[in-house]
Amino acid sequence: MVRPVSVGLNGSPESVAAAHWAAREARLRGVPLRLVYAWEWLPKHLPPTPAEPGFDQHWPERMMGEVAKDIESRHPQLKTTVEQIENLPIPTLLETAEESEVLALGSRGLGTIAGFLAGSVSLAVVARAVRPVVLVRATTGHETAEAVGEVVVGVDLGQPCEPLLEFAFDFAAAHQVPVRALHAWHSPPSYGYLPKEVDVGALGGQERAGLAAALRPWREKHPSIAVYEQLVPERPAHHLIQAASGAALLIVGRRTEPARLGTHLGAVAHAVVHHAPCPVAIVPHP
């Protein structure tokens, strides 16, 4: 089964930027592009009412047609499908993500401040999707910019990291950019009260060895990709956001197991989604 790269469109500059990001990914991956617009019409049992002044029921069709035409002019060999789905956005996008290689969504930038202001729909989708979701912000010239800079991936050695590393190296191979694997390790909570025979420096060495071991099979699979290992003390979100400056993509994971209060992103993913200055991929893992 060939999964498309999909994008949720709503006509905003951010969603158009996501569409162009998705088009480049689909072209490089050699898969189709799927443009999706979800809308909810009035319940069928209600009587028809006059349209609001200025309401244009044909706007979604025109909007999607214009985006598709622009994409096709830039990527003439790319197979593109356009779909309008009468349903609520969140369930529609979750189903679309499940059927896709990756789903791209737009996310609003915070004015001149580097960061995202993710909407409720985007947050709900990335917190529940079973496939990778990428949040893209609108920038000047977004429709022509190619990915440059490193792929930054946050590696938590205490969690399954294979899905994140697979996504990171596949993206890096397609774009021919380096991978920076960043792992934040935590000193023992009793640091300062440990017996003298406990070597905290050795513990850090073990973390470095663990990161190298996790990366080894991916280095072997992609020998042409430059890989940089970075260990940082504590505060993984802070270091990931810093590393994302000038990056082509920032990748973080999200556990698929429901939390006590429902499915959520987790502190690190939530922070980078709101504040990273580059596209952010949230990759689910067990």
TrEMBL record:
Domain UspA: 1-137, 151-284
Pfam families: Usp
Coiled-coil residue windows: none
Alphabetized PANTHER family for the sequence: STRESS RESPONSE PROTEIN NHAX, UNIVERSAL STRESS PROTEIN UP12
Stated family: Belongs to the universal stress protein A family.
Protein known as: Universal stress protein
Originating species: Streptomyces humicola
